[in-house]
Amino acid sequence: MGFKVLALLVAALAGLSMAIQGSLNTALSKATGLLEATFVVHSVGTVTAGILLFGLGLGGGNLVLITQAPWYSWLGGAVGVVITYAVVYSISKAGVATATTAIIVGQILTAALIDHLGILGMERIPFPLYKIIGLVLMAIGARILLAQ
Q1: Are 100 and 18 contacting, i.e. CB atoms less than 8 angstroms apart?
Q2: What is the pLDDT of residues 112-127, one digit of tens each?
Q3: Number of separate domains in the chain
């Protein structure tokens, strides 16, 4: 199995996990509140990552080099809080499939822009017309899926 196929399978696993996580976080928010659930989710995530990194020694990098990372790369944690909050809010109001469809459309449009412009430290990957057509078709498909 090639590395690209493996990467796509891992990406699919991430998508599957995101739908499950959003549902779990929404259930937690119904019991605790939205911001409270966001706090719990990130606290449990921090402990889990700490166990994997320090307890099991699974890290493959070098944490001491964190100060060499660009300043904007530190914003990922804050963005993670926004993502968790927004996913839980949207799932609780619109349902898992509808919210996930909107999330995916927004995610792909933003990813295409980041690739095309090569911003946030990413390699520039031009976005040709046929990919733009694919995005338009995807947006049309999402609209059909979201129709009531």
Answers
A1: yes
A2: 999 999 999 899 998 8
A3: 1
